[in-house]
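Here is the promised in-class demo. Please do not try to memorize the tokens; focus on the logic of going from shape to residues.
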């Protein structure tokens, strides 16, 4: 193979790639305008730590702003442009807020990130750098989402929240994760493990697999394993109680709650919980819950074992993996995919506060011995 073959002189693309290559099979408005920063087509990595298992990691940290949220916000931005909006607004100081800021800027629109008071500057500074207006409110995340959703239809406003009730267009984006997994593997996995907050992502991934099954492209639906914080375990309790509707879900007692480093997946009542519960039931799925401390410790483990720097809200999935290997759900005969949703670079301050890094001080003439010891 020569250079001319590897690098043809004619353009290799004729338009947006990434998730937009799936446009014709996504249930989207015909009017939507592609807005892209190169999201999607993230790598599916074979696990290095478990060579005896057919275990893969879908590395969503490779998206433009470092998380899977770039997929729905790309669709939201395209829909915002098509509908003549002037400002895109979300309730988030985290991944959704960052994606909203980036894709609004890419689309030439203003953006607003609404959040609870007290978000650290290190988390919101990137949003400000992308031109987002930062607004603090005296309410919980779930109440703020409800309030913003109620403003839909206001002149020039586009509510880009990543909940189906607020924005049905963006809710279809994570189907592309299912498409890409099947495109890379050639088949559907037996098990899919994913951190879950609002519930929309896992519901959308499931919808993608359902679509592929109906089309005859795959022969099974993956068993979904949702992983949640132990202090925000409403989804786990709802599945165990057999709840199937919004009245039942939102009528449940609030979880223990409180401050958590897993804030990106912390909801008293998951906004898309009904859809997530339906997906879990249809796939014979489970919900597993773990505490902050274990999730933070897992960040280092994932880094050492897999070479991936993920946020605690993604590392929590590895705790579920341990349990699933122990009970035999994940074994050499089950093909498993784990979802690494977000990069650790957005949460470094949180990780440092919870687990300060250790350092070793030596004299320069001891360097050779130290390196030999580490390498040995």
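The designed amino acids, position by position:
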């Amino acid at each position: 193979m020569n250079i001319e073959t590897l690098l043809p002189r004619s353009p290799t693309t004729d338009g947006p790639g990434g998730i937009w290559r799936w446009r014709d099979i996504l249930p989207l408005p015909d009017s939507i305008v592609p807005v892209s920063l190169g999201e999607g087509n993230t790598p599916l990595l074979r696990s290095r730590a478990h060579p005896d298992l057919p275990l893969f990691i879908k590395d969503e940290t490779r998206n433009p702003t470092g998380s899977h949220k770039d997929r729905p916000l790309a669709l939201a931005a395209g829909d915002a442009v098509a509908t003549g909006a002037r400002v895109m607004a979300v309730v988030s100081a985290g991944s959704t807020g960052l994606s909203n800021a980036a894709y609004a800027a890419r689309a030439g629109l203003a953006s607003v990130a609404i959040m609870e008071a007290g978000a650290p500057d290190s988390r919101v500074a990137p949003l400000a750098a992308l031109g987002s207006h930062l607004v603090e409110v005296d309410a919980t995340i779930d109440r703020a989402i409800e309030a913003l959703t109620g403003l839909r239809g206001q002149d020039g406003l586009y509510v880009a929240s990543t909940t189906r009730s607020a924005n049905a267009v963006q809710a279809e984006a994570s189907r592309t994760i299912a498409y890409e997994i099947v495109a890379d593997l050639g088949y559907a996995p037996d098990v899919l493990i994913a951190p879950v907050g609002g519930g929309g992502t896992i519901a959308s991934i499931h919808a993608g697999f359902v679509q592929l099954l109906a089309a005859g492209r795959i022969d099974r639906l993956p068993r979904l394993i949702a992983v949640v914080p132990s202090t925000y375990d409403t989804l786990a309790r709802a599945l165990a109680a057999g709840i199937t509707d919004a009245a039942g879900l939102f009528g449940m007692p609030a979880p223990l709650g409180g401050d958590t480093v897993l804030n990106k997946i912390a909801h008293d009542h998951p906004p898309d919980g009904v859809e997530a519960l339906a997906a879990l039931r249809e796939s014979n799925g489970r919900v597993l819950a773990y505490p902050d401390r274990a999730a933070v410790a897992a960040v280092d483990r994932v880094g050492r074992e897999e070479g991936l720097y993920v946020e605690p809200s993604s590392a929590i999935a590895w705790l579920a993996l341990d349990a699933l290997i122990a009970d035999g759900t994940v074994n050499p005969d089950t093909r498993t995919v784990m979802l690494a949703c977000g990069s650790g670079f957005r949460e470094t301050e949180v990780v440092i506060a919870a687990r300060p890094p250790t350092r070793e001080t030596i004299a320069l003439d001891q360097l050779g011995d130290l390196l030999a010891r580490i390498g040995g």
